[in-house]
């Protein structure tokens, strides 16, 4: 992920993936997922994920907003 807001400001984006589970997705090492594990993406469907940082991109907090949205 590039060009985050400066440290002390919240930077946020939402990613919508179609058929993400049918591919290999390599998340940056800076992404911190709940319970330390990235989500299992849908092979045939739409997944919605959000990411935010408050430290200039050193850590990105990643969350599933919805998996297998239809």
Overall geometry comes to elongated
How much is the average pLDDT? 95
Q: What are the low-pLDDT stretches, counting only 5+ consecutive residues below 50?
A: none
State the distance separating the first and last CA atoms. Answer: 27 Å
Topology, number of strands: 4
Q: Beta-strand level of the residues, as a percent range?
A: 35-45%
- Describe the strand arrangement of the main beta sheet, using strand numbers: 1-3-4-2
The percent range for helix content is under 10%
Radius of gyration: 13 Å
**SSE pattern, N- to C-terminal:** EEEE
Let me know the largest β-sheet: 4 strands, mixed
Judged by helices, strands and strand pairing, the structural class is mainly beta
Count up the helices: 0
Descriptive report:
It is a single chain. By secondary structure, the chain is mainly beta. 0% of the residues lie in helices and 40% in strands. It has no helices and 4 strands. It has a 4-stranded mixed beta sheet, with no helix packed on it. Strand 3 (46-53) and strand 4 (60-69) form a beta hairpin. The N and C termini lie far apart (27 Å). 10% of the residues are buried. The mean pLDDT is 95.
Task: Describe, in short, the structure shown.
With 70 residues, this protein is mainly β. The chain has strands at residues 11-18, 31-32, 46-53, 60-69.
Features:
four-stranded mixed beta sheet, 70 residues, 40% strand, 0% helix, 4 strands, mainly beta, elongated
């Amino acid at each position: 992920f590039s060009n985050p807001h400066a440290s002390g400001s919240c930077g946020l984006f939402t990613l919508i993936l179609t058929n993400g589970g049918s591919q290999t997705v390599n998340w940056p090492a800076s992404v911190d997922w709940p319970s330390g594990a990235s989500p299992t993406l849908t092979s045939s469907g739409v997944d919605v994920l959000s990411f935010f940082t408050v430290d200039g991109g050193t850590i990105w907090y990643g969350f599933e907003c919805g998996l297998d949205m239809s």
